[in-house]
Amino acid sequence: MASFTPFTILLLTWLLMALPLCFSESRLFRFQDDIRPLIPLDEFGFTSPGGLELVLSHFSFSFSPPIHPHPDLSQVGFFLWPRQSLTHLIRQFDNRQIECPLRTDIVKKSALTFHDFVGRSSNSFTMFRSIDVDEHYTLLFANCVEGMKISMEVESSMFDLISPGVFSPGNYLSAGEKPLPIVYLLFCSAYFALTLLWTLRFLIGYKK
């Protein structure tokens, strides 16, 4: 029967704690004939100038029955909305006080719509958006074309930049997660110290 030394247990514990960080860089979303008009996807807390990167692939749309042969794809896309006012946005949208979030003043200039991408020869597109405000945002997808079904794959990444003006990812941890590496390091150090004490006590007892 296999036995585990304290060091092995310590190493496994550290790996299990660090595992979520390995998958925090990007998220993959798949849509198949999705007709929902508003879909929250992800959220991120920016604490310095940051960026949003979206990789869109296998995009297609259809209607049943077939209508709108040339829909306005500027009404289909992604946008960021402050998390603290997300409930208010959804309530206004459900009550039809807002017809399309992509047309609102707060979103219009920063939205990433499909108007400039669909129709190209490539079936994969990359979208970028710089974030200049320290805020906790929710990433949403809006489909404001009535009756249109969307199929696509989207890979999203949100991060803080290494330095302002340089679009190079620096930190993929959201605002509330940034202390985690320090916390994990403290726990790891504590486990390591306890392991040394246990080993020292074992050796002293063995010599006696």
UniProtKB/TrEMBL annotation:
One of its GO terms (cellular component) is Golgi apparatus. Keywords: Membrane, Signal, Transmembrane, Transmembrane helix. Residues 30-159 form the CAND6/7 N-terminal domain. The keyword Repressor does not apply. This is CAND6/7 N-terminal domain-containing protein. Residues 1-24 form the signal peptide. The chain crosses the membrane at residues 182-204. Pfam families: CAND6-7_N (PF21904).
